[in-house]
Amino acid sequence: MGTWISTWTADPADPADPALPVLLCLPPAGAGCQQFRAWQPALEGTAQVYGVQLPGRENRWREPMPDTFDEAVEAIAAELVSTVGSRPLIVFGHSFGGLLGYEVSRRVTPRALVVSGCRAPGHWTGAGRGIVDDGEELDKLFDTADLDPRLLDEDTRALMVGMLRKDAQLSLSYVHKPGTRLSVPVHAWGADGDETVSAADLDGWAAVTTGGFTRHTTTGGHHAVLRRPQPVLDHLSALLRGEGASLTPTA
């Protein structure tokens, strides 16, 4: 079995400072974490970037998907604890990755949780059903309006659809159990042209924490934050520097 967490440094011959804060990035449904590799140079000297890699994609292509959402979360959290230890941690998740990031955060307590294009946990009932049932949500989730068609040929699209449906099926096993709220700041990013996640879906994140909530808006569709990441990278850099979230290592 492969590992659930990947990391990169700008120079493989020069390992990252083990005292640096950690940014944990969780990708959207149907995607792998290699897209976050480009964030490491942008955050060099500020954080070490880790990506969560679910089975069935990229370097874990041949591995079977977990049976349930909770199984995936427990595996991620366990590996994260052994990998990161007491280092300061910020969790970032996009779309389905935001939901995973929230449940991971309930187990490891980061300094802040940042989500983008993601419904609040209490708004996930049935989310993904349209994808599994071959509905009309695929193009909305692919956010193809501003995507170069050469990047989404028929074979590539077929692979993405297959993986997206598997992740959507996994999301249907999710049941939100409110319980104890987070005690850390939660930041939710949305896009004004996102047809799948509304402002109300984002505002629902306020209910999951006692640590404060802020909603941010950018321009574009569902994947705007990932396709034009500079605004969110600037925001994450500030949090990682301790602006708006204490980054004192835990004991």
Automatic annotation (TrEMBL):
Thioesterase TesA-like domain span: 24-240
Domain of life: Bacteria
Any matching Pfam family: Thioesterase
UniProt KW keywords: Hydrolase
Record's keyword annotation contains Lipid biosynthesis: no
SMART domains given in the database record: PKS_TE (SM00824)
Family of the protein in this entry: Belongs to the thioesterase family.
Name under which the protein is recorded: Thioesterase
